[in-house]
Amino acid sequence: MAPRGRDLTTPQKETIMKMSESGMSSRKIGESMQISANTIQKFLKRNRANNNDENTGRSGRKRFSTDRDDRVLARLVKSNRRQSLVDITTEYNQRAPKQLSTRTVRRRLYDLGYKRCAVTKKITIGEKNRKARVDWCRGKRRWTVETDWCKIIFSDEMKVVLGTDRKIYVWRKSDEKFNRDCLGVEDARSPRAGISAMFWGCLCIDGVGTITEVDGNINSAKYISVLDTNLWPVITKNFLNKPWILQEDNCPVHRSAMTTAWKMQQSIETLTWHSQSPDINIIENVWRMIKIRLECRLEDIRNRADLIRVVKEIWEDINSEDIICLYQSIPRRIEAVIKSKGYITQY
């Protein structure tokens, strides 16, 4: 006999219908197919009544928890997004007369839309910088890629450390990824010791520019040397007899008196930039792209020299179409910052 409680399959239903239409009784059909006659009769009766052979839904086991229990669990999750499943279950059981298992709590949270996810590590933005970001974006709202952003050379430094940072997990819904209580605050602790290197790079709308390693800590004199060596080849190649503007963040060495005087002497115009705005700086996306691709080439790296070589190879392989897409995303980034009232955005 067929296993008890299992639904009839589509081929079985078709066979039953053919046998029934040929005049066979339910008992004969059941004996032939090794299915109980009662099951055959119920199926034929349902088929005649509903004019279809779809299986009816099953009620399943009655839920142990109630809607009120669900609301309590939701409040516990929102009060501390980083709690473990065991902690949530323990706190609930201490408050309620009904005791729930961790499996039940997990199912109820999943049904409510909450999942345990690694946080998106984003910086927290102060009130002053938040308002400044909005004002800056409103001032650039009418800029277009074709006439304005195409002149900008984005530049930045990146430190690569081979190692793994500690992941932080939170309970959140799919549309809460960038909620303030679902984000990780920048961790000031150093990642696990490993091979590391600092890089400076720049890009323009025609593709990636130059990239170079920076030895040791960067100061004003070293930064000027980096610009003098690596910026002009990009200008010569992509902006001959065309206007251009250099974008830098607000790192102290970028706006020191020594650096500012050198840039004035070289007639280098810079784009005003506000602090805590990595989501507008498209070169941050390129750095992330490099780090992701670097994970696939760890076997090629044995020392710092290997790390520098691999990073430069990845940089050179970045498609110019990807860079154009990043430039085209800038107006959307501007609107996203304005819409979020200066808080960090998905970019």
TrEMBL record:
Database matches in InterPro entries: Homeodomain-like_sf, RNaseH_sf, Tc1-like_DDE_dom, Transposase_5, Transposase_Tc1-like
Residues covered by region (Disordered): 45-66
Compositionally biased tracts (Polar residues): 49-58
Domain Tc1-like transposase DDE: 152-296
Recorded coiled-coil stretches: none
GO molecular function ontology, one term from the record: DNA binding
GO biological process: DNA integration; DNA transposition
Domain named Transposase Tc1-like: residues: 70-138
Record SUPFAM superfamilies: Homeodomain-like
Pfam families given in the database record: DDE_3 (PF13358), HTH_Tnp_Tc3_2 (PF01498)
The organism's place on the tree of life at top rank: Eukaryota
Alphabetical list of Gene3D superfamilies matching this protein: Homeodomain-like, Ribonuclease H-like superfamily/Ribonuclease H
Name listed for the protein in its UniProt record: Transposase
Species the sequence originates in: Pinctada imbricata (Atlantic pearl-oyster)
Taxonomy of the source species: Eukaryota, Metazoa, Spiralia, Lophotrochozoa, Mollusca
